[in-house]
Amino acid sequence: MSIFDQFRFLNLGWRDLLEIGIVAYALYRALLLLHGTRAVQMLVGIMVIVLVYVAAWVAKLTVILTILNFIFSFAPIAAVVLFAPELRAGLAHLGQSRVTRFFKRMNTSQVAEEVADAVERLSRSGIGAIIAVEREIGLGDFVQSGSEMQAKVSADLLTTIFTPYSPLHDGAVIIRGDTIIGAGCILPLSQAQMSDRSLGTRHRAALGLSEETDALVIVVSEETATISVASMGELERPLTASQVKDILAGKLSRPATAEQPAIGAAAV
Q1: Taking the mean position of all CA atoms in its chain, how far away is CA 79?
Q2: H or E element that contains 216
């Protein structure tokens, strides 16, 4: 009997393949939401407890089994409490799906225009800024490091936030769709070696976030007033406000910059 004959009893139909595909995609999206959050550490802790339970069951350690059975009886309630932030983030991310984006009142081109206008003003004034635009991977964990907001994206508001000596100027603004959801946020710093000494903490933070997520991160240098965009672990500079607008609107993926090449992990 061949190996194929042994698995004929499975008799997979198109419905089974469809269900497998849906479940696999759902698990993939769930892992994306959990990536980089404290939930991963909690899942590791839960796996350790499960392994201890299995070992106690094999060794017939009745006292430990009794204690763990009592703990597991409250597991559903504990899971809801422990993973409440991730559940909220998941529901919010579901609301940002491609289907529901159709109902947004402000389209992508309008957001791109407002951000580009703000970046141009800030660059002309020599004011440093860092703006992260959320894409597929949620940035909710980074919002918690700053001040949560719910405000429509506008050039006036962005310019005001980054005004020197304002309470929220020394941090990143995070945009989800057409809404500013956080300001004064702390982003992870890239550990990649920088060949250009003129790049500061804002550029490292922009690269760091783009290495961990698929966000687009716009940086205005306080020292040189140049505009940069970090994406997928690479930094494109110098850019114009119109190029930033095209990138945010999806019309331009990788702008050609004549003066300097992309900077990132590949430039180490």
Answers
A1: 23
A2: strand 216-220
What average pLDDT does range 209-228 have in this prediction? Answer: 90
For residues 193 and 231, what is the distance between their CA atoms, to the nearest angstrom? 17
Q: What is the pLDDT of residues 181-207, one digit of tens each?
A: 999 999 988 877 766 666 788 898 999
Question: Which amino acid is located at 185 in the chain?
Answer: C
Task: Give every CB contact of residue 215 below 8 A, 6+ residues apart in sequence.
Answer: 132, 133, 134, 135, 137, 139, 209, 231
Q: Is the dihedral of CA 179, 185, 191, 197 positive or negative?
A: positive
Enumerate the H helices of the chain as residue ranges: 3-6, 14-34, 38-59, 62-72, 75-82, 84-95, 108-125, 140-143, 155-161, 201-212, 241-248
End-to-end, the C-alpha distance of the chain in Å comes to 56
142-173: pLDDT as tens digits: 888 889 889 999 999 999 999 988 888 888 99
Helix (H) or strand (E) holding 239: strand 234-239
